[in-house]
Amino acid sequence: MAHAYTPGLRVAELTVLRKERRLPIKGEVLVAKGDVVTSDTVVARTHLPGNVQLVNVASKLGLPPEDLPTVMVKKEGDAIEKGEPIATTKGFFGLFKSNVPSPCDGSLENISTVTGQVILREPPTPIQIDAYVDGQVVEVMEEEGVAIETVGTFIQGIFGVGGERTGEIKVAVANAGEVLDASRFDDSMKDQIVIGGSHVTWDGLQKAMQVGAAGVVVGGFDDPDLKRLLGKDLGVAITGHEDVTTTLVLTEGFGEIAMAHGTFDLLKKREGRKASVNGATQIRAGVIRPEIVIPIVEERDKLQEEAVGEATGLEIGSSIRVIREPYFGRLGEVTQLPNELQKMESESMVRVLEVRFEDGSEALLPRANVEMIEH
User: Which of 134, 199, 203 is nearest to 173 (CA)?
Assistant: First the structure.
């Protein structure tokens, strides 16, 4: 039968995952195809060129640009230290010398007799990429990075902040509807990924950061608290690079929304296992979802044979979440997928679906207003 494809929010108990780990510029790959790696294994490294600083030496010493080579004490390619002279005038009878100190550590890159400027290059910045997940290297991209394959549980959230972190799964509430407040956290949760229920309070998130939790995964979070956390409105940029010490992943949305029972039960089942979490989110073109990856490496060979492949798309019976008002955040099941375009209140003709919500109520919705939850 035909399938209606739609952005999917994946919640998979068992699946094969492939993660590409690429350097921002060409560098050195440190592992080989077939190597078994852990999340903290450094798989590739490089150096970003340092920032450039321009110093108008001729102007500072009151010289014409063409005379610049006569006063330089450093040559092109020489290493320099902050504060040491790069140029010095001879003065009169060895007295009243003037010099120009280097404003940074690094190297002298260029001396221009046209502009009178000297180009200094700050030291390069070392960059290294780790594996992020426990798994096996299945492809090496020469001088660029690797692809790592793992098998395990994969859960996508709807929104997140904070970057990649790893830690053990720790469930801090009894059910998917409980609020995660400050009283739920203690020092034993350092470096753990703490699972809550419907909502994490502002004080709860602050306590998570205080005890050093690697991540918090919960149903919802208040929008004003997000602005408070970031110090500004989020806008439409990609998240994941915020200066926060604990990664936050929301599985349902903003406000107090109980985590989907299937998601909560799956996380509870994996309690005590090592997981990787990433809050990076982009909700416009090129959708990026925050995620929790829980590798099950000890049964890799067996699970790779059983693992679920790619999603087939919307079908009757598919689980969905509504991503626009007036039913935003509600979960349900597809009951019909009419082929004909239908006119909506906006007068536009769109493809629709019929959905039955968890409370038994039904609605007719544009297919663009829902996302599929893949189990």
Answer: 199
For residue 49, whether the previous peptide bond is cis, meaning omega lies within 30 degrees of 0, is no
Domain 161-289 -> CATH class: alpha beta
- Smallest CA-to-CA distance from 73 within 49, 98, 51 is with 98
Six token digits for residue 82: 């902050």
**Structure tokens given for 295:** 């590798």
Rounded Cα distance between 133 and 318, Å, is: 29
User: On the CB side of 143, how many CA atoms lie within 13 Å of its CA?
Assistant: 4
Fold of 52-121: OB fold (Dihydrolipoamide Acetyltransferase, E2P) (2.40.50)
Per the prediction, the chain carries an average pLDDT of 87
150-196 residue pLDDT tens: 999 999 998 999 999 999 999 999 999 999 999 999 999 999 999 99
- Per the structure block, which two tokens stand in for 262? 């299937």
Residues 99-124 have a mean pLDDT of: 95
